[in-house]
Specification:
globular, 5 helices, 167 residues, 17% strand, Metallo-beta-lactamase, Chain A, six-stranded mixed beta sheet
């Protein structure tokens, strides 16, 4: 079975959820609120971490990191964030506790101030996951338990839905 279309759909839903989070209000607790107009450009940067995921969503001075690549990818993500002049993360989303999604997050949290982390409430017993939890505790980060949510938005811009290709 070809996983490519499924991965694209999952990525599209993740991006749409991220857009929702960044535009749903300025409160620090990321509660659902009424939609409103936001000034500025929303940028989604896919950081090439090889096998794994790391996506940065920025709008103005706000930055959201979704996943942190595999083990050892922290320095690459840190360099990328610094090159993009990111000095603070409003939130980190850890989609799930597999190594190729959380491997670099502890290093990122050691380097940048982070307001909160959004992650699923799961039991996972790997040393890497334990390291992540210890880093979260060390920096006294607020953890928001992620839950399954399906959000649909119809996005239109003057240049079309997606630049340069199909969904």
């Amino acid at each position: 079975m070809n996983q490519r279309p499924r991965k694209k759909h999952r990525l599209l839903l993740l991006i749409m959820f991220s857009l929702f989070l960044l535009t749903s209000g300025s409160s620090a607790d990321w509660r659902v609120s009424d939609a409103h107009s936001v000034q500025g450009t929303l940028t989604v940067t896919f950081i090439d971490v090889g096998q794994g995921d790391a996506t940065l969503v920025t709008q103005g001075k706000h930055a959201l990191l979704i996943d942190g690549g595999d083990i050892g990818q922290g320095p690459l993500i840190i360099r990328t964030l610094k090159q993009l002049r990111i000095d603070h993360l409003d939130a980190i989303i850890a989609t799930h506790p597999h190594a190729d999604h959380i491997g670099g997050l502890a290093a990122v949290m050691e380097e940048f101030p982070v307001d909160q982390i959004i992650m699923p409430r799961v039991s996972h017993t790997t040393a890497l996951y334990e390291e992540l939890l210890l880093t979260i505790r060390k920096h006294q980060l607020r953890i928001i338990a992620a839950m399954f949510i399906l959000v649909f938005f119809m996005l239109y811009t003057s240049s079309g839905l997606v630049a340069g290709g199909k969904l």
